Amino acid sequence: MNAIEVNNLVKRYGKIEAVKGISFKVKEGEIFGLIGPNGAGKTTTLRIVATLLQITEGEVKIFEYDLKKDADEIRKIISYLPEDAGAYKNLTGREYLRFIAGFFDGEEIVEKGIKIADLGRRIDDKIETYSKGMTRRLLVARALMNSPKLAILDEPTTGLDVINAQEIRKIIQKIAKDGTTVLLSSHNMLEIEFLCDRIALINEGKIIEEGNPEELKRKYSARNIEEVFTEVVS
Amino acid sequence: MIGGTMEEAQKKPLIGIVDNDNGVFSSITKNVTKSMAEVIYDESGEKVDEGLEILKEKGGTALFLMPENFTYNILNNISAVIHVYWIMKGAGIMDMVSSDVVENIMYQINQKISEILIEKGKMNSSFVLSPIKKEETTIFKGKEMEGISPSTIGNILSSQSTTVPIIMMIIIIMAGGMVISSMGMEKENKTLETLLTLPVRRSSIVFGKIVGSAIVGLIMAIVYMIGFSYYINSFQQSMEINLAGYGISLNFFDYVLIGISVFFSLLSALSLCMVLGTFAKNYKSAQTLTVPVSILAIIPMFIIMFKDFDTLPFTLKIILFAIPFSHPMMAMRSLLFKNYFIVIAGILYVAIFAFILIMIAVWVFKTDKLITGRIKSPRKFFMRR
To answer: Are residues B286 and B224 in the same domain?
Structure first.
């Protein structure tokens, strides 16, 4: 079963065409990465899949639900972590996770969130006192604690140091093993190569290549995905 | 408004006279009145009712009734009585101007007669200085109130016509500001995108934000109203006049209607703020978006302070009715005089207004305008058509 089916997706902002008829499929349980430079259309695609933006043309299906008709149903099975997300600063970390848990199954998932965030005693401090890295860990925990069927993560390790970024990557791998499908975007091509089962290279609103990182490296005789991207774009 | 008040003060008031005395001093009284006012009815006999009808038709201010013994009493050192029948049109500051002019005529009549008596050598000073006594009956919105002048009624009602609109204005601006700021904060703290992808209906988010602020607004309203009622009670006691004695009071049903009017007005204000809040980019820009709401709350406050709804020109009536925040400001005075039609019509209008705005807010939340902030400029919108 496909977790995501995107067919000829177009998104226009007035005269600007941010996404120009892209198509891709993501299988259930897969980690699928969208990589590309700034302004390539990654975030727009992720926001559409996350039900935040409306489709100009084309079709998107999430676990057979049509995005245009069943957005409310889709929101029950997805979780979205925006690139520059924030949290309610006047709450403590625990209160924030509780607040979000209130939209799902309730108290049980809070403990899971606390475990993923791994903030120790600081979980009971106000979010306004957290560092950028701590806030990001809390937000990742918020996005993954309810074991969504589809996690949409926009630059999940942005702003994190090497150690924290590694831990987040491990968490993402673990939830995928537990059955969550992951759609993520990143500029960090090494991260994508490490995490993803399949990737799509996106540039100027178009998917210019798609496949397994190892296959793509072989196809373009490249040492890493960065070189694949350079080769494809040139 | 100020120009209108000055214009009103310079106009000669329309006066009616019923002279049952036909003596020297009633004649002097008529001459003074004619020099300062336009006398549109001048008869004698049992003509008070007829005179009042004509005055009401022509927009007159007062009718002076001089009894048979008017001149006789003055000549015998007894204060003469002029019975003044006031036709009060409204309780706003501008509505009271013509009655102030008539009060001045009464003063001039007293002065003139005093001068004549002094020239004649009358030495009873307390009588000479005030030979005329005034007995008053005020007719206002179908009620006849004996022994009370329009200025007294105006003073009591003006405490409502200023305090209630001010309270409503404060509540609308404060509670509305909360809604707009919450939208600005969601955008500034980057929490909006997360909120919009949670499994909750967009309409529930809109209602949640509105209801939260409405509860705070209503608590504020109750606190202000309690303070206000203490203020009014102390004011009425000090004047030793209780309008309830004239049948001008509110019953339980009236208070319920005021509550409903306040609720729907607050709801429409908050819905409007919700729609405006979608344009906020951050907390700072949210603050500037409260300006249109503040203006819409201030305009009816000033109009109602200066004029009664009934005495407004037709265009201003329409503008005042169209502004949803006017209705609770007008409700108390209308209900004191049992004018239920305007209050209930206002409640229905504001409820429909609030419903439409809530639907617009929900629609905005369902589109991606909230994320992209892209709203067609009016020019582009019309150019496409």
So the answer is: yes
